[in-house]
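Handout, section B. The chain below has 170 residues.
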Amino acid sequence: MIGDRWGVSDSEISRAYPCDHFVASPALEAWRGVHVDAPAEAVWLWVAQVRVAPYSYDWIDNLGRRSPRELVGLPEPRVGERFTTAGGRELGRIVSVAPGEQLTGTIMGAFMSYVLVPRGHDTTRLLLKVVMRTSRWAAPWLSVGDLVMARRQLLNLKELAERHQGKAPN
């Protein structure tokens, strides 16, 4: 499918993701990944902070509000809590979490898993998989739209984790 892969290897596509348990026979499956020059602990703090802002194109999905560029000191995420906040509205819910390893949420019928894969002490692969039941004709359009937004989000999380590693939350 067009737009279903960005920055991921064949082995990263073939691995199991927590979101796979929530959608049987998805019409949409999309994988995204980025290499982060920061330890998984630093990356995790930013992934967990997706609960307060989308971290993609703020002018589109956050009504022009800038996603925080400093850690806000959130407690660890828990199943049942909101998944994200966009444009001042709480959206979705967390359906699975393993602190420091993965965060899986659902929003607007899609399920997505952010998975951290440590590579040595100071680098991490940040992987994202999105699955959704939708019509076969809509899936390619949704995949391309997600690619644009998810790519920006992962690159922003990468930049923030690399810049702020080792700094305590406010």
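Note. Residues 139-164 form the longest helix (26 residues). Compare this with the example in section A.
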